[in-house]
Structures are given as structure tokens and as C-alpha cells.
Design a protein that fits this description.
With 164 residues, this protein is α+β, with helices and mostly antiparallel strands. It has helices at 2-93, 105-112, 137-147, and strands at residues 96-104, 128-134, 154-161. It has three helices and three strands. The longest helix is centred in the N-terminal third of the chain and has 92 residues, at 2-93. Residues 50-91 form a coiled coil.
Length: 164
């Protein structure tokens, strides 16, 4: 088909016109080849850049994993040190740990009547256990009665020292 147009062009516009058309076609082909070569080089360059980025990402992920592991280890050490400090303070101040059983009489009464207490959760109808650091049984009762006042229906069921 192309040769037909060349022959027709040579007859109609003469040899210089046909040569011009051929040169234009050659230039167009060269531009297409150059664009393809550039495109192929760009694909290779981008592929190399992707490989570099993947390598950097893997390195960053390894570093993050290592730092996370170190963070967990440090948090465990901090918790251990805090526990040791609390034990030492307790030993020096002669404080003990007490377990206090407490419930709310108003919640129990409402529950028996098939109602709900207007302010407190139903769990307060059962005995709840709270731990507290104090030097004596009396101090525990004073602190608990301030936090859970008897006039609001709270009843201290038991106070026991926790033995380690």
C-alpha cells in the first residue's frame, strides 16, 4: 500500500515531492523508534528504582521490628523496676496490701424487688474486691469508708491482709 502511494505521489507531484514524502516517513519512523527506546529505558530505570525502594522498605521494616522488640523489653524492665520500687517503699513504710470485700445494700435491695438502682451498676449487689496499700486495718477502713460511704449503702464485708 505504501509503495502505491509513493508511485502515485511521484507521478502527481514529481520526484522531489515523492522524495520529500519518503524523508518525512523516514523521520517519523526514527521518532517512533526513539520514543520506543526512551520508553524502554524509562521502564528499566523505574524498575531499578522500584527495586531500590523495596530494598529500603525491607531495611526500614527490619529496623522497626528491632526497635519494637527493644521497646517491649524496656517496658518490661520499667514494670519490673516499678514493682521493685513499690515493694521497697512498702517495706520501708511498713505498708501492707489489703483485700477488701464490699457491696452495696441499696443495689441488693433494688435487685430483690426486681428493680435497678438509679445510679449504680448491678455488679454492686455482689461482693466486689478491692486491693489497697495501708499500714493497718483501721487505716484501710477509713480510706474505704471515704471512697465508699456507708450512708450511700456500701457495706464492708471483709478486710484481709494479702500475704505474698
Amino acid at each position: 500500500m505504501t509503495s502505491f502511494w509513493l508511485i502515485l505521489g511521484a507521478l502527481v507531484i514529481g520526484l522531489p515531492g515523492a522524495a520529500f514524502i519518503v524523508l518525512q516517513m523516514i523521520n517519523q519512523h526514527k521518532r517512533q523508534v526513539m520514543a520506543y527506546e526512551w520508553s524502554a529505558q524509562e521502564v528499566v530505570r523505574r524498575g531499578q528504582r522500584l527495586d531500590e525502594m523495596e530494598k529500603l522498605t525491607r531495611g526500614a521494616q527490619h529496623k522497626i521490628a528491632e526497635l519494637t522488640r527493644q521497646k517491649i523489653e524496656l517496658e518490661a524492665q520499667v514494670a519490673k523496676l516499678e514493682k521493685m520500687a513499690a515493694e521497697q517503699v512498702a517495706k520501708e513504710t511498713n505498708t501492707k496490701t489489703f483485700s477488701i470485700g464490699i457491696y452495696n445494700q441499696e443495689v441488693r435491695r433494688a435487685h430483690m424487688m426486681g428493680e435497678k438502682h438509679r445510679q449504680l451498676d448491678d455488679k454492686w449487689g455482689e461482693i466486689n474486691y478491692v486491693e489497697l496499700q495501708a499500714t493497718s486495718d483501721d487505716e484501710v477502713r477509713r480510706v474505704i469508708m471515704r471512697k465508699f460511704p456507708p450512708e450511700r449503702g456500701f457495706v464492708i464485708e471483709s478486710v484481709q491482709e494479702v500475704r505474698k
